[in-house]
Specification:
homodimer, about 5% strand, 6 helices, Multidrug-efflux Transporter Regulator, Chain: A, Domain 2, DNA-binding, binds zinc ion
Chain lengths: ~140, ~140
DNA sequence: CTACACCCTATACTTCGGTATAGGGTCAAG
DNA sequence: CTTGACCCTATACCGAAGTATAGGGTGTAG
């Protein structure tokens, strides 16, 4: 029975009003009721749905993935299995992303070390090997 | 003395011509010489610069970060220290990103496990606790 | 009545690293 | 001379998740 206006919901959930419009536009939430003058009135269910969205978003799911889950929910076919499949898929994606980033990190880190040791103990030829490795050119040079 | 046309450079480096135009537009590479009829003619230095860009991009630096380095290079102030600072900064950013993703992963994984064990051995009340945790609502429900 | 806070819609803009398209020019072979 | 491969510019578009702005309506307090 209690209904909140856009600004109140935004305040409560830490969103902007624009974000609420946006979620409505992309079909993540249904268009809420309106007051006679056209103001949105969000009921408890609307707010609960938004809370769910934010909770799951914080777990790292994209709005599209959340929308998929909510479609199942709306169709009353949101099962344990469906959730499990999606979360598992997401975990795998996260693992892949983590591995890729670690691979990059492990290529970058040695170069830093190399530069570091060169800075503390320059070799006689005056050129850091990491700098040379990266540029593939050597230090500065013209034409 | 040998100069390549756009398509040849693109072919050689595994880029599209559009990408070359794009790099030129954003100032990553200088506008190369032109033939009398207006065709781009990339010299050895141009190709070397592009190779550098691709090499460093493969290390995970953004085009903006690469541009910064190239500006130093163009100003002949590309030092070991400058490179080291940038790479170190990047490594730190990668570390942060990795940690964030791992935190997400570690929040998600237990939920998958919970659903998994519920699927193999449903509890009497017919509701998976992970499903309840996530939705904050329980299974399906209306108004 | 008027100021002000709040609300509405529609549209454009943001970042990033390009890709796609439209509409035209150049050049060598046949 | 025409065909076809190549080149040019300018512009729009992609995904993701919004943010910003313009231009207007509503509701209440003084
Ligand atoms: Zn996926
Ligand atoms: Zn160095
Ligand atoms: Zn940074
Ligand atoms: Zn479950």
């Amino acid at each position: 029975m209690n209904s909140l206006r856009t600004g109140e919901v935004a305040q409560k959930l830490g969103l902007s009003a624009q974000t609420l419009y946006f979620y409505e536009r992309i079909g993540l939430i249904p268009s809420p009721q309106r007051s006679p003058s056209g103001y949105r009135l969000f009921g408890d269910r609307d707010v609960a749905r938004l809370s769910f969205i934010l909770r799951v978003k914080a777990l790292g799911l994209s709005l599209d993935e959340i929308k998929e889950i909510l479609l199942l929910y709306d169709g009353e076919s949101l099962t344990c299995q469906a959730i499990r499949d999606r979360l598992q898929h997401k975990v795998q994606e996260l693992d892949q992303k983590i591995h890729r980033l670690q691979a990059l990190r492990n290529e970058l880190a040695p170069l830093v070390k190399e530069c570091q040791s060169f800075l503390s103990q320059p070799s006689p030829d005056g050129e850091c090997s990491a700098l040379r490795d990266i540029t593939g050119i050597g230090g500065n040079q013209d034409a």
